[in-house]
Amino acid sequence: MPICTACGEKNPDNTPRCIKCGVALGHQARAKVDAQRATVAKTVRIIFTVIVVVLVLLAIKPAYEAAGTAYFRYRLNTVKEAAIKSCGGPITETSMGYQKDQFDKCMSTDETLQTAQTNFDNFTHASKS
Ligand SMILES: [Zn+2]
After folding, report:
1. Predicted structure pTM score
2. Rounded mean pLDDT of 88-97?
């Protein structure tokens, strides 16, 4: 029972034209509807793909920044702890002034610590801009 694509009238089988509005039924009409459906489906797929790509791109940057910041912060903290130990720290309230000066000098000349700090700063500044 072919349904007219123009008016929705239910026509008897093997009717060449709609009994209500006269639009051609059958293969031509069906092919036209199929082509329209295919175009709509294709458009929907393209829009869906674009939305997914945009969402992925939007999600990737914060995830990358969060992971990178966490990594470089962890690395910096680890290196800092090691530097504090190797410089005879940590400095406490009972430490003498010269001990504090030595400690500060030792910490400020620790190349591993400087590198870790630079890496952390570079990453966090780069991801902010
Ligand atoms: Zn019709």
Report:
1. 0.56
2. 86
